[in-house]
Amino acid sequence: MSSQKYASLRYTALRFALLIGCFALVYVLCYAHVIPLGVGSSNLMWMVLLSLILSAPLSWVLLRKQRDAMSVQIVERVDRAKDRINSNAAQEDGA
């Protein structure tokens, strides 16, 4: 249970770390003139958008195990909530 307890937090933290890593890579590539800088003052926005575009497919592949664990955690919570709602409804019907 403890490995499932923080699955959402673990996935979110790893996803954020991957985004930061992609941003660092894009930053280095921009200032090494491997990829073009943005136009005017749009450079930061360009780097953030490029980082998001790079990190999305990487997280899809690299974080599959964590995403599946988070999915299991969410399904369990939804099932428990449904059980409580059905239990409360049965108590009201019986009363």
Task: Report on this structure.
The protein is 84% helix and 0% strand. The model has no long low-confidence stretch (mean pLDDT 88). The protein has helices at 2-5, 7-31, 43-62, 64-94. It is mainly α and 95 residues long. The radius of gyration is 21 Å and the shape is elongated. The protein starts with a helix and ends with a helix. It contains four helices and no strands.
Strand content: under 5%
Our measurement of the CA-to-CA distance between the termini, rounded to an integer number of angstroms, reads 36 Å
Q: What profile does the largest beta sheet have?
A: none
Q: Which class best fits the helix and strand makeup?
A: mainly alpha
Number of helices: 4
Using only C-alpha atoms, the radius of gyration works out to 21 Å
Query: Percent of residues in helical segments?
Result: over 70%
| Sequence of secondary-structure elements | HHHH
Mean pLDDT: 88
Q: How many strand units?
A: 0
From the spread of the alpha carbons, the general shape counts as elongated
Low-confidence stretches: none
Keywords summarizing the entry:
95 residues, mainly alpha, 84% helix
Layout of helices and strands:
Layout: H1 2-5, H2 7-31, H3 43-62, H4 64-94
Short characterization:
The protein is mostly helical and 95 residues long. The chain has helices at 2-5, 7-31, 43-62, 64-94.
